[in-house]
Amino acid sequence: MCGIVGYVGNRDAVSVLVEGLLRLEYRGYDSAGVAVLRDDELLSVKAAVRVWQLRNMVTDLAGAHLGIAHTRWATHGPATEANAHPHFDSSGRFAVVHNGIIENAEALRTQLADRGVELASDTDSEVFAHLVAEASEQGGRLEDAVRAALRLVEGTYGLVVLDATRPDELVAARNGSPIVLGIGAGEMFVASDVSALVRHTRQVVYLEDGELATVRAGEFHTSTIDARTTHRAPTTVDLGVDDYELGGFADYMDKEMAEQPEAVVRVLRGRLDAKLGTARLDGLGLNPWELRGIRRVKFLGCGSAYYAGQLGAAVVEELARVPADAEPAAEFSYRNPVVDPDCLYVAVSQSGETFDTLAPVQELRRKGGRVVGAVNVVGSAIARECGSGVFLHAGPEISVASTKAFTNMAVSFALLGLLLGRVRDLSAAHGRRTVAGLQALPERIAEIIDRRDEVAAVAERFADAEHMFFIGRVRAWPVAREGAQKLKEISYVHAEAYQASELKHGPLALIDKSMPSVVLVPDDELVAKNLSTIEQIKARGGPVIAVTNADVPIELADAVITVPSVGAALDPILLTIPLQLFAYHMARKLGRDIDKPRNLAKSVTVE
Ligand code: F6R
Known about the structure:
Oligomer: single chain
Bound molecules: fructose -6-phosphate
């Protein structure tokens, strides 16, 4: 949600800015805009348009060397030209782009109005431009005015300010919403996400919360809101422009599903001990005594990250025999939870920016809870707030629908289960079998993806379904939930997940020939029960697609998708892959915009 790009250097600023916005499109947005300073004149174009349309509207802005740009996801006021960023003060001297939410915006708007300031938009962000303008009346540097304005706002921000009287600098600030500086040769970039920078530089500086940066073509300096200088050395991002390119794939979801075998190799690298049959997760920062002291594990995440947490809870309980569960992160916050000092809380997030997951992390830390992250994006808010955890190493995930990050979450939780198990009662032999299963995963996933045409053919047969059930029992229950989630979000086909045991308590009433069910049949001790579920559905005329690694009689179901096995505890990971492919091919058949499903954003940074 929302994206920021800033540039100062010798190139044509507007081209750099628009290209940066294109890289941020995947985050989701409903309007876009740029402002550049050319010959001391502040020029701007903004509208409720796509970035490619904006590109055609900004041709007159060529020839500037300083500018800021933004893609907005509406929070305060609809997607209109007036509400699009950048926002300006009344004199048109200061331009601001802002991600996050200024929580006391209403009070600040009233105070500004009382002082005779006319506001041009409905947004919380515009107040900041006026506050900077007022603060600048005291004289001093741009960063002093920004600092003074920041002291008045409550809430979250990643922002960049441009002052038309200072053609050589931008000031950026961060609190809860990421800002990263890109260090070029004689040029400098600012963005809310490294994906907007990697085409130009891999040398970056992530601002910390409460930090400001003044950025000029050849230098930058950072300081805190209370004006203490900070010293920040650039780090090198190990991602290049290719990581963000389609590279011959039809869309990013297709590419990211295909990348899963290598992504799993990365998440396992250096974390398995085949000899001792255990895992190493040094990033948790927990010694064996501390690991043994954990009496409960709770996974917190949203959407697919929550379902991955459910898979995690199952595998932790199975391997370590430690009680574990998962809860939607926002629900956890809203119910004022009891914080258990013996519980390991795991905040699960691909982006590391999801507000609903960040909030409970902060609450847990305030209350002395032990919270670690399972996060994909290095330097993200949740990763920083947790301070310790497991990085997912899935690589950039651009498609809104999570695939490779989901898989790497589930794999990480198997590592956690193994580690917790091996400091308890899990035998070395069982540990070694689990290590072997984990090591086999990349190849088994590749096999499933290689046979994707079979799944595509099944999707083709069912593409006219308006509703579908996804049925799973015990280990396969989170798989069913994730399968239903994938299908609804990218194909817009209504899908609901049920535990197999729950069918007869209500949902069976909906079964008829127009309600296909995807029934998961893992090769575990519950095969017979799952086969009888299929029979119950068939007896009522419901079409069945069985997804299984067990020996399922082919004639029992209308379609059977088989996957290999790596052992019962890990098989749910494999069972998820065909469901991704199924959703993907359904969505393709229905002509959906797969990478950017309607109404959704990749990073949900608001409550
Ligand atoms: C589904 C999906 C979302 C995210 C959720 C959490 O495919 O992508 O449900 O899983 O919004 O996002 P992160 O993992 O970035 O916190």
